[in-house]
Amino acid sequence: MSTRPINSKLKKFKAECSYYDQSMEDYVSVDYDLAEERANHYDKALIELEQRLDFSQWVPERFGTRDVVILADNIIEIIYLEYARGAPVEVCWIE
């Protein structure tokens, strides 16, 4: 998507969504910067957005949707935007 449609959609979102505020945009920008930095760490990376992940092999009936999944060099990096302020997020590393 080119810049013009993105800016148009963002302007409409800001005007119509009562829950939008500048702190939300700042918070998301930090995660965007992190995802871009991590993806640029690799020569070749497959990047998937809003990817549903199935963890049922390790935890029965567990799944989730992750904001950014980066696959490169036999490594999977998952970046998850947690905007629920003050809510702890449990992280599990599987190698």
Characterise this structure.
Pfam families: DUF2800. This is DUF2800 domain-containing protein. By secondary structure, the protein is an alpha+beta fold. The protein has one domain (3-79). 35% of the residues lie in helices and 25% in strands. The protein is built from two helices and three strands. Strands 1-2-3 form a three-stranded antiparallel sheet, covered by helices on one side. The chain is globular.
Element pattern in H and E: HHEEE
Strand-residue proportion: 25-35%
Q: What is the terminal separation in angstroms?
A: 35 Å
Please bin the fraction of helical residues. Answer: 25-40%
Précis, in short:
This is DUF2800 domain-containing protein. This protein is α+β, with helices and mostly antiparallel strands.
